[in-house]
């Protein structure tokens, strides 16, 4: 429960923060695909193992004018286990870089992170069980660890899009067990996430250098 509350706060923070745009800031020319549906870039339900279902999303129906979208799945067949994805479309690549950096600097990913007393924490690191690394993402981070539960997180930037993908990991540590996907299943979902952006960037290529 702590972990799901943490993810909810994270996604809410992203969506609120991204709506703050200084009125005096001049707007450059929109990047290719600016008015396409961001929801279309969320991972498809078919990328998940059998028994995982979509639980909620924002917006309920695709809306090309909405730049910040979210979707959550859970392992209904087991009654536990969750996965969440948020995507933020920035107006400029510079803004997207800032958002990526902000997500990467979350306290739980920092080497000096100190958990609360009694919280089970194992530092988040790149797992040797997952070999995939995006070849098209401008910035890509994948790490697994424990914070209350075993989890894997992906933070990735594709041009002016930033996505945060969180997945519960099936794991056991000193008598504690968590319900989620195997490393192989998680890698399959991450590959599906990346494939969405590969197709999108191919459809909307960037012909000129844009800040």
Overall shape? globular
| CATH level-1 class | Alpha Beta
CATH topology: Protein Transport Mog1p, Chain A
Q: In which order are the strands of the major sheet placed?
A: 1-2-3-7-6-5-4
Oligomer: single chain
The value of Rg in angstroms is: 17 Å
Beta-strand segment tally: 9
Helix content bin: 10-25%
* Count of the separate structural domains: 1
Task: Indicate the low-confidence ranges by residue numbers.
Answer: 12-24
Main sheet?
7 strands, antiparallel
CATH arch. level architecture:
3-Layer(aba) Sandwich
Kindly describe this structure.
This protein has helices spanning 2-17, 93-104, 183-203; strands at 52-58, 68-75, 80-89, 121-125, 139-147, 149-158, 161-168, 171-173, 176-178. With 211 residues, it is of the alpha+beta class. The chain has one domain (2-19, 37-203): 3-Layer(aba) Sandwich (Protein Transport Mog1p, Chain A). The protein has a 7-stranded antiparallel β-sheet, sandwiched between helices. β6 (149-158) and β7 (161-168) form a beta hairpin. The radius of gyration is 17 Å and the shape is globular. Residues 12-24 have low confidence and may be disordered.
């Amino acid at each position: 429960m702590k972990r799901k509350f943490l993810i909810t706060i994270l996604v809410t923070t992203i969506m609120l923060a991204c709506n703050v745009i200084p009125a005096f800031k001049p707007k450059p020319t929109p990047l290719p695909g600016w008015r396409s549906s961001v929801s279309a870039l969320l991972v498809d339900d078919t990328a998940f193992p059998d028994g995982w279902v979509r639980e909620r999303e924002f917006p309920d129906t695709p809306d090309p004018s909405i730049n910040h979208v979210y979707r959550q799945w859970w392992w209904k067949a087991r009654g536990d286990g969750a996965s969440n994805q948020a995507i933020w479309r920035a107006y400029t690549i510079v803004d997207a870089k800032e958002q990526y950096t902000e997500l990467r600097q979350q306290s739980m990913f920092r080497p000096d992170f100190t958990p609360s007393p009694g919280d089970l924490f194992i530092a988040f690191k790149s797992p040797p069980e997952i070999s995939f690394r995006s070849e098209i993402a401008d910035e890509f981070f994948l790490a697994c660890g424990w914070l209350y539960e075993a989890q894997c997180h992906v933070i990735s930037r594709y041009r002016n899009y930033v996505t945060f993908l969180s997945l519960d990991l099936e794991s056991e540590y000193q008598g504690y067990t968590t319900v989620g996907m195997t490393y192989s299943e998680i890698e399959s979902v991450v590959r599906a996430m990346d494939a969405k952006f590969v197709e999108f960037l191919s459809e909307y290529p960037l012909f000129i250098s844009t800040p």
